[in-house]
Design brief:
Elongation Factor Tu (Ef-tu), domain 3, 2 domains, single chain, 21% helix, Rossmann fold, 11 strands, 6-stranded antiparallel β-sheet, globular, alpha/beta
């Protein structure tokens, strides 16, 4: 990822507090995020999406934990998150209740799939963006509350006419990646096709910390399609039952505006938040979660949105809706320590996912912010290539 160079009056930089300021000796430029909680700034920087396709997914992730079996699925639904990302639903077959040795399909929020396509020799690696609840059978509303005498209640649920269990993947168009290219074929060529999947990955919720009950604050930092595992975690937390006090979740999300979007606006025009929702991956889903939690209060969710322009030098401003800046959090320091800087960092865990350079930078910053007293053990990260 290439940092942007601008006159300082164009930017509100997401720097840590002065007491922990870290000089940017590698490139003498400010951090990679450009916050736009009050405006969008377009500049010359470009977020790289170059992939190291020379290293197959299964080889790159060989040291990661994996389930020991493949599951058959069917590609049942495709829609567009934006012009470069497809959302794919893979429907799981009904579990055979007579096979007591069959391990039911399950995963943790944040994990990915090995996706085996019959016509391709190498498996693709794609992060699950749905929740574990989506992979369970949802009974239909007209299913009987009590099963008939002598009937196995579990069998009654699995045979209901409710929503079929599924897993969702967000797949970015990449013709150099054979599995991704296949999943971007015309819909009539791929819908209904059988695939095989295997769950893997250690970047998961709940975190591997000793006292999960002591965690009161979750910091999520996403770059580009690094939002994929974090949207699964966030949606899962949104589905959880109420906690007291509510869990704080601070999402810092950096995304690149597609070139077509940049070209569609002149310097005198300002894109609306509705226009942004059609371009920024999972922004509608994030806003929906924030709105729901403003009422339910199971979570306290805030979002800082950072945009990296594709290839333009003009500056365009836009007002952000109130639901994106509920508590005014700016940058990793306040996300960890709160607006007043008094929150104990030992109450926080941090999840970072994005391009390698961005991930390394953010992890180094968080290690300073969260301190030496076990801070590293509460920082979890995954890089996408």
């Amino acid at each position: 990822m290439q940092a942007l160079r601008h006159p300082i009056h164009h930017l509100r930089l997401a720097l840590p507090a002065p007491s922990i300021h870290r000089p940017w000796s590698r490139s003498s430029v400010p951090p990679i995020f450009i916050p736009i909680t009050s405006r969008i700034v377009r500049g010359r920087g470009v977020m790289s999406s170059r992939r190291e396709d020379s290293i197959p997914h299964e080889l790159r992730t060989a040291a990661e934990p994996r389930q020991n079996r493949l599951y058959p699925v069917r590609l049942s639904h495709v829609e567009y998150a934006n012009s470069s990302v497809r959302l794919l639903q893979l429907t799981l077959p009904r579990q055979d209740c007579d096979d007591v040795y069959q391990e039911p399909f399950s995963f943790l929020p944040g994990q990915w799939l090995d996706v085996h396509i019959p016509s391709i020799s190498t498996a693709g690696g794609f992060t699950i963006t749905s929740t574990p609840a989506d992979a369970r059978v949802l009974p239909s509303l007209d299913s009987p509350i009590d099963p008939p005498d002598g009937e196995n209640p579990e069998l009654s649920v699995s045979e209901s006419r409710g929503r079929e269990p599924f897993v969702e993947l967000a797949v970015q168009e990449a013709q150099a990646n054979p599995p991704a290219a296949w999943l971007w074929k015309p819909l009539e060529e791929i819908l209904g096709k059988p695939l095989n999947i295997r769950v893997g990955g250690s970047f998961t919720w709940p975190p591997s910390v000793n006292e999960i009950s002591a965690i009161k604050n979750v910091v999520m930092i996403a770059g580009g399609v690094g939002i994929n595992p974090l949207i699964s975690i966030l949606a899962h937390l949104n589905n959880e039952s109420s906690t007291s006090p509510p869990l704080h979740v601070h999402l810092l999300y950096s995304s690149r505006l597609p070139p077509g979007h940049t070209a569609a606006h002149k310097s005198s025009e300002s894109p609306s938040i509705e226009d942004l929702e059609s371009q920024i991956l999972f922004l509608p889903r994030i806003r929906s979660i924030i709105r729901s939690q403003q009422q339910a209060r199971r979570l306290r969710v805030s979002l800082d949105l950072f945009l990296t322009p594709a290839s333009s030098s003009e500056q365009v401003s836009v007002e952000s809706p109130a639901d994106l800046t509920e508590d005014g959090t700016k940058g990793p320091f306040r996300a960890v320590h709160g607006q007043d800087g008094k929150r104990d960092s030992r109450e926080s865990v941090a999840y970072v996912c994005g391009p390698p350079q961005m991930t390394d930078t953010m992890v180094e910053m968080l290690e300073i912010i969260m301190g030496a007293e076990g801070g590293k053990s509460r920082i979890f990260y995954e890089k996408w290539w």
